[in-house]
Design brief:
The complex is a heterodimer of chains A (108) and B (486).
Chain A lengths: L1 H19 L6 H12 L2 H10 L4 H29 L5 H19 L1
Helix pairs in contact in A: 2-4, 3-4
Chain B lengths: L1 H22 L3 H25 L5 H21 L5 H26 L8 H6 L10 H29 L12 H22 L8 H22 L7 H23 L2 H25 L3 H6 L8 H8 L9 H9 L3 E6 L1 H6 L2 H13 L3 E6 L9 H8 L7 E3 H4 L8 E5 L8 H4 L18 E6 L19 E5 L2 H14 L1
Parallel strand pairs in B: 1-2, 1-4, 2-3, 4-5, 5-6
Helix pairs in contact in B: 1-2, 1-10, 4-6, 4-9, 6-7, 6-8, 6-9, 7-8, 9-10, 13-19, 15-19
Classes of the chains: A mainly alpha (108), B alpha/beta (486).
Chain lengths: 108, 486
């Protein structure tokens, strides 16, 4: 128990250090991404639902598993979808050039 | 050996989470960071599936497939404007999962028949741990935080999505009820902890204690979020994010699982940081936000009465187009109104047009603009606005004085100059964007109705302010058409 508490406190400090430096622009992806990470309960769900146990623990675990998987898969995918939209001026210019090149080709 | 291997995989996963979050410090590396974190999660799941001697693999795979498909569909289909709701909902699922895992762990002690020798041999060491008071505390914490997160997140989901009113919901005796429910929850926690030593031989106090606690936690989650109004949602969503992490960590204590504890602590910290940033940006304490009842839609009558004797300078589309087209520098200030009108694409189109004419265009983003941290940034990114054109409040506030036009699109309280000096104003002391210092302020707004705080915005009556009434999106389209003809 004490070991776990130590791990918890140290991890919280690491979290504060790492996340304090995330810029405002990325706060929404930070939320949805960290949210997906909190879906790590998926591991707990697999352990309790998949192991030997009574009917109750199996079904509770299975519902937990589904909820956690929604959280994990949805969270990471939506974060990815958001992050791929963030572009600099230079990157945006590049992509629009590519489009301009490809558009006449598509028309002909 | 196998347990060691699992633990090492969990350690690797935790390291990948930290590295992934670290890469979120820059938009350039952020996408890779998210993928790194996802890889960590995949490793943790696969290790658990293969190495943890799962007895019912078929059900497990089925659960993963069902949950995964639902999550994937939600993530693909969601509109960027609906992102706050979706994040709230995902939060809720995470909290629910944590609470259920803790409950299932308790239920596991209730197997009447002894497991067969073959199965017993498979159980890792942790499973022989007797249920004691410490174990009970971790379980009740997990259930309490998890279910408060679940209920609170879905109320937030309803408010953000407009399924229930976004205004604060308060009724007489609400604080008292919240207090009673909290006390009830504490009593049930007492029952569970007191009954822990006799468990599972005497199961009733623990089982019914947890059942009662679950019900009360759900009610508490609703009561905590329902009095909080729409524009305070960035705080609520951040706080619930933090809770979902703490719930996962508590479940980690229950299962003695390091991966859960580390990740839970990371997410708990992340949510807490965002909560603090949001509160500071509104100059209000967390307690003040959580007590709720702030703001909401004020009656139109008050606004009209207060507005008497002051003149509003209304601009026509033609005036506004000329102002914009011949400016040297324009700073665009988006707010929640832009999200509601889905006007982010038109904003970008206007900005492009102005830039082609040689106008310098920048965006000023207030930290609590919108309904979740970073809401405006995501919408503008969706509309293909380069993020290096977006500036945070502190970076850009001095520049308004050198701007010809501050174009306010659907923002209100975050640009109200009263926050700087009017000590009687409910938003006094809130850091604001200094749009009034621009040579001309052009405000796109439906009406003079006050913003979320319910107070009138004197910005609209300043001599250098021009109001362009109408739906933000339509006004922008008209402006774009007009400027093209100049």
């Amino acid at each position: 128990m004490l070991d776990n508490l130590i791990i918890f406190v140290l991890a919280a400090f690491v979290g504060f250090e790492v996340i304090s430096k995330v810029p405002q622009t990325l706060h929404t992806p930070l939320m949805s991404g960290s949210n997906a990470i909190s879906g790590i309960t998926i591991v707990g769900a697999l352990v309790v639902a998949g192991m030997v146990g009574g009917t109750w623990s199996k079904w509770l675990g299975l519902v937990a598993l589904i909820a956690a998987t929604i959280n994990v898969v949805g969270g990471f995918l939506v974060t990815d979808r958001m992050l791929q939209m963030f572009k600099t001026r230079a990157q945006r210019a590049q992509t629009s050039e590519k489009q301009e090149v490809s558009e006449p080709a598509a028309m002909s | 050996m196998k347990t060691t291997l699992i633990d090492l995989t969990y350690l690797l996963a935790a390291a990948l989470f930290i590295l992934g979050l670290k890469r979120l410090q820059s938009p350039k590396t952020a996408r890779g960071g998210n993928q790194l974190a996802a890889l960590g999660m995949l490793l943790a799941v696969v290790a658990t599936l293969f190495l943890h001697r799962i007895v019912t693999p078929v059900e497990m795979i089925a659960g993963l497939v069902i949950g995964g498909s639902i999550g994937a569909v939600l993530a693909r289909r969601v509109e960027m404007t609906a992102m706050p709701e979706l994040v709230a909902a995902f939060n809720g699922f995470g909290g629910l999962a944590s609470a259920l895992v803790a409950t299932a762990e308790v239920a596991r002690y209730l197997i009447p028949e002894k497991p067969t020798a073959a199965i017993a041999a498979l159980l890792p060491a942790v499973e022989q741990v007797p249920f004691d008071a410490v174990q009970a505390i971790t379980v009740v914490l997990s259930v309490l935080i998890g279910l408060v997160t679940f209920a609170g997140s879905f109320v937030a989901f309803g408010k953000l999505g407009g399924y229930i009113t976004g205004n604060p919901v308060l009724f007489p005796g609400m604080r008292l009820l919240t207090l009673l429910v909290t006390l009830g929850a504490l009593v049930s926690i007492g029952f569970v902890v007191a009954g822990a030593d006799a468990f599972p031989a005497v199961a009733d106090p623990v089982v019914w204690g947890i059942v009662a606690l679950s019900g009360l936690a759900l009610v508490l989650g609703v009561l905590l979020v329902i009095p909080i109004g729409g524009a305070d949602m960035p705080v609520v969503v951040s706080l619930l994010n933090s809770y979902s992490g703490l719930a996962a960590a508590a479940t980690g204590f229950v299962l003695d699982n390091t991966a859960l504890i580390v990740s839970g602590a990371l997410v708990g910290a992340s949510g807490l940081i965002l909560t603090r940033i949001m509160c500071e940006a509104m100059n209000r304490s967390l307690l003040n936000v959580l007590l709720g009842g702030f703001g909401g839609e004020a009656g139109d009558g008050a606004a009209v009465a207060a507005a008497e004797g002051k003149t509003v300078h209304e601009a026509t589309v033609e005036d506004a187009a000329i102002l914009l087209a011949y400016a040297n520098k324009v700073i665009i200030v988006p707010g929640y109104g832009m999200a509601v009108a889905q006007a982010q694409h038109q904003v970008r189109e206007l900005a492009d047009l102005l830039q082609e004419r040689g106008v310098e265009v920048k965006y000023a983003i207030h930290p609590v603009a919108g309904r979740m941290p970073g809401h405006m940034n995501v919408l503008l990114a969706e509309a293909n606005v380069p993020y290096d054109q977006l500036y945070e409040m502190d970076e850009i506030n001095d520049e308004f004085a050198t701007a010809d036009i501050a174009l306010v699109v659907g923002a209100n309280d975050v640009v109200n100059p009263a926050a700087r000096y009017d000590k009687n104003s409910p938003i006094y002391g809130m850091p604001i964007l200094n749009v009034d210092q621009a040579r001309t302020v052009l405000v796109l707004k439906r009406s003079l109705r006050p913003g979320y705080s319910g107070i009138e915005n004197e910005l609209f009556y300043l001599p250098n302010t021009r109001m362009l009434f109408g739906d933000a999106r339509e006004s922008l389209m008209k402006l774009i058409g007009e400027i093209k003809n100049l």
